[in-house]
Design brief:
The protein has 190 residues and is mainly alpha-helical. The protein is built from 7 helices and no strands. It is elongated and about 85 Å long. The mean pLDDT is 93.
Length: 190
């Protein structure tokens, strides 16, 4: 390839990289907002403000939609998908509905699995809130849900290269279930 021809090709690559950088910057700016909406939604759920929580979670889902078809920057969407999964499933649990699947949430299953692991800690938190309020039956419902999710996740044993951070989150989930079990037993003994 002659030097003159190389300059033209380099120019094409620079334009492509500039376009990609612009798209990446837009995704990164939105990711922060999506994660914030999910965090707010979870806080509102724990505070008993389900309607406001539902609105925050809906905003997160709406904000990720424009990026859900991108394949170039899928790795940037893993955390917001995970947060949306966690918040959406907690909302379903609080509303006593079935947990939505990854297909229903419109996301890959990998961040969904990570969100499931994180959900266990949020269910434990709800269980503790119910125990504080003297609602033992509700506390048991949250514990059973957390324990059941953990049991369902047990057969998933793959390397970190296939499911990054899953084993670590799975171990944390186990600890959360064990702590919740002890807290529930202690509360029943009082």
């Amino acid at each position: 390839m002659a030097k003159g021809n190389l300059s033209g090709k380099i120019g094409e690559m620079v334009r492509e990289l500039e376009a990609r950088e612009k798209e990446q910057d837009a995704i990164l700016a939105s990711v922060r907002g999506i994660v914030r909406h999910c965090a707010n939604g979870i806080k509102l759920l724990h505070a008993g403000e389900t309607g406001k929580a539902r609105a925050e979670i809906a905003l997160a889902k709406k904000e990720i939609l424009p990026f859900s078809k991108t394949s170039k920057f899928e790795y940037l969407l893993q955390q917001p998908y995970q947060e949306i999964a966690e918040a959406s499933m907690l909302l379903a649990a609080v509303e006593k509905k079935g947990l939505p699947s990854w297909e229903e949430l419109g996301m890959p299953f990998e961040p969904y699995l990570l969100g499931l692991c994180d959900l266990i800690g949020e269910l434990r938190r709800e269980m503790l809130e119910m125990l504080k309020k003297g609602k033992t039956a509700e506390a048991e419902r949250y514990f059973e849900l957390a324990s059941g999710i953990y049991e369902e996740l047990l057969p998933i044993r793959f390397s970190n290269s296939l499911l990054p951070n899953f084993r670590k989150k799975q171990d944390v989930a186990r600890s959360q279930v064990e702590q919740a079990r002890s807290e529930l037993v202690r509360a029943k003994m009082r």
